[in-house]
Design brief:
single chain, alpha+beta, D-amino Acid Aminotransferase, Chain A, domain 1, D-amino Acid Aminotransferase, Chain A, domain 2, 2 domains, 6-stranded antiparallel β-sheet, 9 helices, 14 strands, 27% strand, globular, binds pyridoxal-5'-phosphate, BCAT-like_C
Length: 294
């Protein structure tokens, strides 16, 4: 489905002014981006995709935190939090009558080369229905990301862990998974550390402990993983952030890839080796995500 309205942000206005005055409503098909915008020509920008449940954007603060973190990693101006929050709220509210679950994407690019003013916009859409993947489990393959596990320390200019607009590589990895007959990917560092999916965070349960990967390894801080760990901890389950290796995945009790639009998708095989799908915990996880009010 096409987005209904594009909410274009006037990022040239002084900070602190009325956010509503800086949000300009445009329609699909209107000219809103210059072809020489650096977001278009270089993928030089950042974005977030936030789940909308009954018109309310979920995990808003975690997404705004990550947006600010990505901006800092890219040397982009700090996003004005109140303005972006308002734009997401307005785009989310528009989705309420259209679908119980929808999403809002919000984007900030470096703008046009000579102007030094970022470009910003947000829009709502209905993502693909993830329910099938959640029930049956997904087949994943391990793919080498080509960077070492310490890339954020040695080479921060490679922007690992920033949510940049440059997702062509992530999409190419998903096409490679499809060529191998799988649904999704878990990236592994060139020196053998398990990382994340191209658009999801890994959660493994090993000997009853729920584990995710440290962001120091150049993975995104997952907002869905954050809320899932909070729910698991509330239910008394132990959680941990730690490094994992491919051999750990073969002995795991259960594995999930999680993301804002997909929720928690159980993994049923890794490189063809079967993994147990824990339907009960998967249902509990997705119920917890569905019960969020903010
Ligand atoms: N890792 C990457 C590379 C992603 O692109 C995403 C989301 O798109 C995630 C993890 C999961 O993040 P979230 O749960 O905040 O959607």
């Amino acid at each position: 489905m096409q987005p209904l309205t594009l909410y274009v942000l006037d990022l040239s206005r002084p900070a602190g002014a009325d956010p509503d005055a800086a949000i300009i409503r445009r329609q699909v098909g209107d000219a809103v981006l210059r072809t020489d915008d650096l977001g278009v020509t270089r993928g030089d920008g950042i974005f977030e995709t936030i789940l909308v449940h009954q018109g309310v954007a979920q995990a808003m603060d975690a997404h705004l935190d990550r947006f600010a973190r990505s901006a800092a990693m890219m040397d982009l101006p700090a996003p004005e939090r109140a303005l972006w929050r308002r734009a997401v709220e307005v785009a989310a509210a528009e989705m309420a009558p259209l679908a119980p679950f929808a999403a809002v994407k919000f984007v900030m690019t470096r703008g046009v080369e000579t102007e030094d003013i970022p470009t910003g916009f947000a829009y709502g859409f209905v993502p693909d229905d993830p329910a099938g993947a959640r029930l049956d489990g997904i087949d994943v393959v391990l793919l080498d990301r080509g960077y070492r596990h310490d890339v954020t320390e040695t080479s921060p200019w490679l922007l690992q862990g920033a949510k940049t607009l440059a997702y062509a590589v992530n999409k190419a990895a998903l096409r490679e998974a499809a060529r191998r007959g799988a649904h999704d990917v878990i990236f592994v560092s060139s020196d053998g550390y398990v990382l994340e999916g191209p658009n999801s965070t890994l959660i493994a349960r090993i000997d009853g402990v729920y584990i995710t990967i440290p962001v120091a390894l150049g993975v995104l801080p997952g907002t869905t993983q954050g809320d899932l760990f909070a729910a698991l901890e509330l239910a008394g389950a132990p959680t941990r952030v730690s490094e994992l290796f491919p051999a750990d995945l073969t002995t795991a009790d259960a594995l999930w890839l999680c993301s804002s639009t997909r929720g928690a998708a159980p993994i049923r095989s890794v490189d063809g080796a079967p993994v147990t799908v824990d339907r009960e915990v998967t249902a509990m996880m997705n119920d917890a995500l569905g019960a969020r009010t903010t």
